[in-house]
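Format notes (please read before filing issues)

Several people have asked whether sequences and structure tokens are stored in separate files. They are not. Every record keeps both together, in the order shown below: the sequence lines, then the token lines. Line labels are part of the format and must not be stripped during preprocessing.
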Amino acid sequence: MAKARPARPGEAAALTALVMRSKAHWGYGAEFLAECAAELRVREEELTTRRIVVAEDARGEALGVASLEDGGDAGGPDGGGSPGTARLGLLFVEPSAIGRGLGRLLYLDAVRRAAALGFRRLLIDADPHAAGFYRAMGAVPAAGSPPGLVRFEVAPAPLAAWARAWTGGTAAVHVGNVAEFNAQFADASLDPAQGPAHDYACLAAFYSPRPAALLLPRPVPRWWAGAVGRPLGWGPEVEVYDGLVERGPGLSEAVLARPALAGRVTGYGLPLVPWGRTGPYARLAGVPWRPDALRYESKSAAHALFARILAGGGHPAIALPAQWRAGSRRAAVRRVATRARAGESTVLKSEHGVGGSGTTVVTPGRVRAAGGARALLRRLPRGPLLVEEYVHGPADPDAPRDLTYDGFVDGAGRPHTVGAALMDVADGGYRGAVVGPGAVPARLEAPLLEFGAAVGRELAAAGHRGWFDVDFVVDAAGRLAPTEANLRLTGPSVAFMAAARLDELRGGGHLVRTTDRVELGARLSEAQLEEVCAGLARDCAGLGAVFVPAIPTGAFDPEPWLGVLVAAHSREVLDAAGALVRERALAVGEGFAGAERGQSSKSKGEAGLRVR
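Then the structure lines:
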């Protein structure tokens, strides 16, 4: 395995020769190379001042070289340098080693070192032949290119402070116990088989910016961890334990039932990060368990908490919708019918639901079409119902509507703000989110963060430890209406984790979009899906974007789909990559003989534990 190390005394001549061989690889003539020789020469006295590093293979052979230099006169087109500016002066790879990931290794090392040294701007004046590489690595085209070169810019960034606090700055063991968390509430609106939850457990890949191991209920394709890990900078040491639960929700219990596995994942000495806390997870992790600390997962309890916070004043941009607890089905019918006659829409909620399950928007037209409120409610899940005022949104259909605050309470009881996200919600169902600069307008972001932080302080005082979010809708007056709290990891949390990791690797300012369900035009084999995902990763990189197959297991369902994550440094590139993914996903199968179009059920493959 290749690694980057500082250049050693006495290597200057050999590194110069490597640089010249690499430059010549692109077909430049002898006269041009002679003109470049002085500029490309590596001198012994510069090995330290230019911060030169070498990429070497397992045998110690030098196969690449890079330098991280002070900005000098590259600080801007006006020639004024800046102490916050660095320059990637060299990045060359031995021609025989091109394509083996050494350029990526050196580039990521340079960005990491620039961030650690306090540089906030990294300039790259690239050979035109290398422009595609830098674009694929996330560097952004910049003005002021010198003659014959292409200028790029990167904003080196350390790992976000909240991300360091989340796991103490270390890698973590990710426990994909989505179904286990849901099952402890026994809500009638939740799928008893927890099939969708087992698919969603694949998001365990993103429970922190840097995993040491993943524990997954369902088998996942053997290539999948590599497809996720390459853009997120995972090393080969990340272990995947999948196929742990054939039936039922009990992932933590399945691990506890395998003493060798339980001992291995707890013996790392690293934090365990679950989707959400449960009694079995607490036994596995050896942490205290207080079921009452999850009481605000209840939608009525969360509503009461919001009301108490607002009663204290200080949140003029927050407007809490009215909510009534229906004592009986008949009481719910009466209230819905009364509101429908008055022309008002109503939101019906179960006490516990995930991803929009158990939440139904009832319009007057829908009541009439069903033959009355009683007939409509007969079709909804049994169990307690909450009746809530429907919040009408802005008149502009393109205005932000569904937002969320994400944060967490650490083990010492200190709340931390992570950020605000724009959610994609349709018919009450969550479909994905966007995080990053400008994802949420500043006029909405400021009051959202302030109120979310107030909720975090209350949750900490109530004993909650771990992740939480607060969901909002924007009303017609532009105010924020809090609708529920979730005391677990969330869909948007996945985007925040990926953004933190990509910012650390590729430079700050990433926009990240998660889409839980992208429809596939056909059901493919594992090998065919790998080919599709590799093509999407390659073509998105050509746009300057990152593609990650976040949820692969749905691709083998009778109606196949794929959960994806796309990231870029601009909204234009993000949208272009998203459109590319959707188009290619619908077209899959056209190029594969034998691809199925949703007929038979998925073959589960071997049962039990697979480790890799």
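For reference, the curators noted about this record: The first strand starts at residue 3 and ends at 6. The chain has a mean pLDDT of 90.
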